[in-house]
TrEMBL record:
The lineage of its organism: Bacteria, Pseudomonadati, Pseudomonadota, Alphaproteobacteria, Rhodospirillales. It comes from the Bacteria. SUPFAM superfamilies: Glycoside hydrolase/deacetylase (SSF88713). It comes from Caenispirillum bisanense. This is Polysaccharide deacetylase. One of its GO terms (biological process) is carbohydrate metabolic process.
């Protein structure tokens, strides 16, 4: 019997600007662009630059979902430049959409926010509106002169079946729209913990959801596999558990701003987030050192190798005692500025 191919591990990075409280206080707050992606400290980039440096050092590739509807407020720059840098570094650029940015197309956006809020989900919207929004996002990348993406992630992992139908009509073949530890869709067909699935003709690779057992007989808590939320030891164990169960692909979620601490929504006062930086480096090294067992692949690469689709009936279980050190580290990281 030939050896099993390596289990695909997909590091996915959402590249997005920050609303920075603007919708809560539209008269005094303004969105933040470049600082939320660059996270520059003393002339050194601890956001996107750190990610690209770390991946290059370990010879790994990732998928960067680039948010394009922010152009309604910021125009094409600097997001276009970030997408070009990511492509030049050899990574996949997928499409990321936060529909809330579209409100800035309206001169009276402040009064609209006060009346009804911005709306950051396409779930339950008419089919033509969903398709038009996704097409708008694709059109921005076309205007930038970038290759047409094949993958999409909706903001906040908010999705329903109508979004997949619109994706299929627009030629988007791969999605990573599901993460039960972050958002649970009203469509039961999207209650997926991991693996690869065909949804309305689109291959969906959910962010891995795992169950954390809680003390005192409380029901398990579902968590998504993220750099900022999952300690390095737990991540390694989850990868090994999925490998042993012949599951996968394993999708990990992160953002550039997770690698810097900030004291204000404007990203004016920053400090390197050393704990999260070490977690990313550990993941890249763990995969690189085990080529027979794991391959860090882009979302599109993993989808192409996952046919017939794999199915994970339930997410991996993690005992509370094993995640407790990571929870303590996260809390200390939040409380101690210089940690």
């Amino acid at each position: 019997m030939p050896p099993r191919p390596p289990t695909d591990v997909c590091l996915t990075v959402d590249i997005e600007f920050s609303i920075a409280g603007t919708f809560h206080d539209p008269d005094r707050r303004r969105p933040v662009g470049a600082p939320a992606v660059e996270c520059s400290i003393a002339g050194e980039g601890h956001g996107l630059d750190f990610l690209l440096r770390t991946l290059a050092r370990h010879g790994q590739r990732a998928t960067f979902f680039v948010e394009t509807l922010c152009t309604a407020h910021f125009g094409d720059e600097p997001m276009r430049t970030y997408a070009e840098r990511i492509l030049d570094a050899g990574h996949e650029v997928g499409l990321h959409l936060h529909p809330c940015w579209q409100i800035f197309h309206f001169p009276d956006w402040r009064s609209r926010v006060r009346r009804a809020g911005p709306g950051d989900s396409l779930c339950g919207r008419p089919a033509e509106a969903v398709e038009a929004t996704i097409a708008n996002g694709l059109g921005v990348m076309e205007r930038w002169g970038l290759p047409r993406p094949t993958s999409l992630r909706m903001g906040n992992l908010m999705c329903d079946l109508g979004i997949y139908r619109a994706m299929a009509r627009l030629g988007l073949t791969v999605a990573s729209n599901v993460g039960l530890g972050i958002h649970r869709s009203g469509d039961a067909a999207l209650h997926l913990t991991g693996g690869a699935h065909v949804v309305e003709g689109v291959t969906e690779l959910p962010v891995l959801t795992y169950d954390v057992g809680l003390p005192l007989g409380r029901p398990p808590r579902q968590k998504c596999l993220t750099i900022t939320g999952t300690a390095a030891g737990t991540t390694r164990r989850l990868l090994q558990d999925v490998r042993a169960a012949d599951g996968g692909p394993v999708v990990v979620l992160t953002h550039p701003f997770e690698f810097a601490k900030r004291r204000d929504p404007d990203f004016a006062t920053l400090r390197p987030n050393r704990i999260n930086q070490r977690r990313l480096a550990d993941l890249c090294a763990f995969v690189a050192e085990r080529p027979a067992d794991f391959r860090m692949a882009t979302i599109t690469e993993a989808a192409a190798s996952a046919h017939p689709p794999t199915v994970m009936a339930a997410g991996p279980d993690v005992a509370f005692a094993s995640v407790l050190p990571g929870l303590i580290a996260n809390r200390l990281n939040d409380l101690v500025w210089r940690l």
